[in-house]
Write a structure and sequence with these properties.
About 5% of the residues lie in helices and about 25% in strands. By secondary structure, the protein is mainly β. Strands 1-4-2-3 form a 4-stranded mixed sheet, with no helix packed on it. It is elongated and about 60 Å long. The N terminus is likely disordered.
Length: about 100
C-alpha cells in the first residue's frame, strides 16, 4: 500500500555521509521506494539529467560533428555521481525480506 507517492527525500552519499555533489556533468537520478518495516530501498527507475554542455559526449548539446580522423573527440564520456531519491514509502517489508522470511 502506498503511503505517500509525492514524498521525495534526497539521500546522502552512503560512503561519505555528505549530500550529493553539485555537478556540471550529466548524471543519473536513481529513484527508490522505501519499505517502512525493514527500511530497505527498492529501485523503481532512473532519470538522466543532461548537463547541457557541448563538451560532454553524453549531453544533447554535444555537436554531432565533434572531432575528426586526425583529432578524435576528446569530450567527457562518463556520468557524474548519481543522486539517490526516495519517491515513495510503502507499508510492510520489501519483497526480498518477505521472500526470505525476515
Amino acid at each position: 500500500m502506498l503511503l505517500n507517492s509525492v514524498h521525495s527525500i534526497e539521500l546522502k552519499n552512503p560512503r561519505s555521509g555528505l549530500p550529493p555533489p553539485t555537478t556540471n556533468m550529466c548524471y543519473r537520478e536513481l529513484l527508490f521506494k522505501r519499505s517502512v518495516e525493514c527500511e530497505h530501498l527498492t529501485k523503481t527507475g532512473q532519470n538522466i539529467i543532461d548537463c547541457q554542455s557541448s563538451r560532454c559526449y553524453l549531453s544533447a548539446a554535444h555537436p554531432s560533428n565533434c572531432g575528426s580522423h586526425q583529432r578524435p573527440c576528446s569530450c567527457r564520456r562518463y556520468y557524474g555521481q548519481p543522486i539517490r531519491r526516495v519517491t515513495a514509502e510503502v507499508t510492510g517489508k520489501c519483497a526480498l525480506c518477505v521472500e526470505e522470511g525476515l
